[in-house]
Design a protein that fits this description.
- The chain is of the alpha/beta class and about 260 residues long.
- It has eight helices and ten strands.
- A seven-stranded parallel sheet has the order 1-10-9-6-2-3-5. A three-stranded antiparallel sheet has the order 4-8-7.
- It binds 2-amino-2-deoxy-6-O-phosphono-alpha-D-glucopyranose.
- 2-amino-2-deoxy-6-O-phosphono-alpha-D-glucopyranose binds next to helix 5.
């Protein structure tokens, strides 16, 4: 696993955006580049930079197919807290050549959530899998909506949200955890780790414990993002603040390794 430590949120975002753009630009295969995407505050800087690069002609999304990680159950597209709305508002609407038919987001209003999730997995497979899945994590180390104790081999499905997550996400719902949907549809940990590459953004003091658990702790269903330790192409891009709970030798190790990679 690579852990790329950047000085602050802005630098982390630029690093990740340029990494993704380089992957898209370097994709020479006949099939589209398949990109997995998250919501949340963590990826906003990446989305801004990718949109800037797209407008400047530095990266094209004409041959990119996207799959989002998750969606709340019961929120229609036009609800300003639905992940469909978030993705269009923060990213897709700012791209000049993204094809709407290439955007895939789980439908939280589906009458048959199981069928919706099975179809999502099948669609990912029909493209030959995901080339790069970008993600963020919750303060409890959840990846997508795979809360603590979700199986590390889970596939796309219906998830119940924990009280903790509903409290954390209540900042977007008038600070009322009861207003946060109790369920979501989410790709599984297995869905994410089947991707060729996984790039997870971890920033801010409030993620420091989770970063330490996911990197220094064992692989554990309690910290579902720790499954990345078993992935051969996993990168965590983080800022200094998020490193607060790492031991000094871990911190130095990753700085050294990255310095060596650049030589
Ligand atoms: C939600 C999402 C996750 C996201 C997490 C962190 O729970 N389901 O996919 O990674 O929030 O969000 P933020 O980046 O705002 O901290």
């Amino acid at each position: 696993m690579r852990v790329v430590i950047q000085e602050n949120y802005e630098k982390m975002s630029l690093w990740a955006a340029h990494y993704i753009a380089a992957k898209i630009n370097g994709h020479k295969e006949d099939r589209p580049f398949v990109l997995g995407l998250p919501t949340g505050s963590s990826p906003i800087g990446v989305y801004k930079e990718l949109a800037r690069m797209n407008k400047a002609g530095e990266v094209s999304f004409a041959n990119v197919v996207t799959f989002n990680m998750d969606e709340y159950v019961g929120l229609p597209h036009e609800h300003d807290q639905s992940y469909w709305y978030f993705m269009h508002d923060n990213f897709f609407n700012h791209l000049v050549d993204m094809k709407p038919e290439n955007i895939n987001i789980l439908n939280g209003m589906a009458e048959d959530p199981e069928a919706e999730c099975a179809a999502y997995e099948a669609k990912i497979a029909s493209y030959g899998g995901i080339d790069l899945f970008m993600g963020g994590i919750g303060v409890d180390g959840h990846l997508a909506f795979n809360e603590p104790f979700t199986s590390l081999s889970s596939r796309t499905g219906l998830r119940a949200l924990t009280t903790d997550t509903r409290i954390v996400n209540s900042r977007f719902f008038g600070n009322d955890p009861e207003k946060v949907p109790a369920y979501a549809l989410s790709v599984g940990i297995g869905t994410v780790t089947d991707s060729k590459e996984v790039l997870v953004l971890i920033n801010g003091h409030n993620k420091a414990r989770a970063l330490a658990k996911c990197v220094e702790g064992g692989v554990s269903q309690k910290w579902t993002a720790s499954a990345l330790q078993m992935h051969n192409g996993a990168i965590i891009a983080c800022d200094e603040e998020a490193c607060g709970e790492l031991t000094v030798d871990t911190y130095k190790y990753f700085l050294d390794i990255e310095k060596a990679e650049r030589l």
